[in-house]
Write a structure and sequence with these properties.
Elements lengths: L25 E3 L7 E5 L2 E5 L11 H7 L1 E7 L6 E7 L5 E7 L3 H12 L7 E7 L5 H12 L5 E6 L8 H6 L6 H8 L6 H14 L4 H15 E5 L5 E5 L6 E4 L4
Parallel strand pairs: 1-3, 6-7, 7-8
Antiparallel strand pairs: 2-3, 4-5, 9-10, 10-11
Helix pairs in contact: 6-7
C-alpha cells in the first residue's frame, strides 16, 4: 500500500488504522519517507523509508535510523524481517542565507558542490528579503541548477519568523492545528478558529464537498446579504450590526 495511515501520517492520510485487516503476516507500505516497523495484527507493518533524503522533516529519522531497505523471508516456519542499512547516495545540504549576502553565499555553495560525484539536494532558507522573490528564485536556479539534483528554497518575507528546525526537533512544538490558530489570532474569534480547524481536518482527508457545506453553513449563520442603492450585493456581519466585512457578488 502506497498510502499514509493516520497513526503515522496525521497531516494528509488516506487510510485510518482501523481500515486495515488484521489477518496478514506482512504489511508493505510506502509514501512515508521515514522508517517504521510496527507490530500489527498477527504480523508486521513496515514503512521501509526512502533511500534518499528529500526534506528537512526527514533529518531526525535519518539521524536515528539511517537509510536502508527491507528483506522479508517467508519460507521458514517463522517470518523473518530484516533491515539492511545503506549509505545515502548523495549529500543533503541545509543552509540559511542572508539575502544581503546572497551572491557570496551562492558562490560558496557552488565551490563546495562543484566537484561532488553526485548532485546534492539543497534546502536553502533565504532571510531578510527586500526584493522580488521570483527574481531571487531564478537567480538561485541559474547559478546552482546544473550542480544540484533538486533545490528547495524557502523565502522569509513575513514579519514573524517560524523556526522550522525548532519545530521539527522539538516534540513539544506547536502542531499544524495550533500553528493555524496562532496565525488567526488577529481575528480574535473562537468561531473562526473552530472553522479553520474543522476545514483542516476535512481537507486533509480530501473531503471537498463536506468542506464546502461547512463554509456555506458558517456563512449563512454569520452574515446577511443585502443590496445597496446601486443594486450591488453587500455582505453584513450578523453579530455586529452595520459592520461590512465583504462586498461584491456572492458566488
Amino acid at each position: 500500500l502506497h498510502q499514509g495511515i493516520d497513526k503515522y501520517f496525521n497531516l494528509q492520510y488516506e487510510l485510518e488504522i482501523g481500515d486495515i485487516p488484521y489477518n496478514f503476516d506482512y504489511y508493505a507500505l510506502g509514501h512515508i519517507h521515514n522508517y517504521i516497523c510496527d507490530d500489527f495484527g498477527k504480523g508486521k507493518l513496515v514503512y521501509p523509508g526512502s533511500t534518499e533524503t528529500w526534506n528537512v522533516s526527514e533529518l531526525i529519522d535519518l539521524k536515528k535510523n539511517g537509510k536502508g531497505f527491507i528483506v522479508v523471508d517467508l519460507d521458514g516456519p517463522k517470518m523473518n524481517v530484516k533491515r539492511v542499512a545503506m549509505d545515502i547516495p548523495r549529500e543533503f545540504i541545509v543552509k540559511t542565507i542572508d539575502y544581503r549576502n546572497l551572491g557570496a553565499e551562492i558562490d560558496s555553495i557552488k565551490n563546495t558542490i562543484k566537484d561532488f560525484d553526485k548532485q546534492p539536494i539543497l534546502n536553502l532558507k533565504i532571510n531578510n528579503i527586500d526584493s522580488n522573490i521570483g527574481e531571487i528564485y531564478e537567480f538561485i536556479n541559474r547559478e546552482l541548477g546544473d550542480l544540484a539534483l533538486m533545490i528547495r528554497p524557502t523565502f522569509n518575507v513575513l514579519d514573524r519568523e517560524v523556526d522550522v528546525d525548532a519545530i521539527i526537533n522539538d516534540e513539544n512544538a506547536l502542531g499544524p492545528k495550533e500553528l493555524l490558530i496562532d496565525e488567526l489570532k488577529e481575528y480574535d474569534s473562537e468561531d473562526v478558529n473552530n472553522l479553520a480547524v474543522e476545514l483542516y481536518d476535512l481537507l486533509s482527508k480530501n473531503k471537498t464537498e463536506e468542506s464546502e457545506d461547512l463554509i456555506r453553513q458558517f456563512f449563512n449563520e454569520k452574515y446577511n446579504i443585502i443590496r445597496d442603492d446601486s443594486g450591488e450585493e453587500i455582505t453584513e456581519n450578523k453579530a455586529e450590526d452595520g459592520q461590512v466585512r465583504f462586498s461584491g457578488a456572492i458566488q
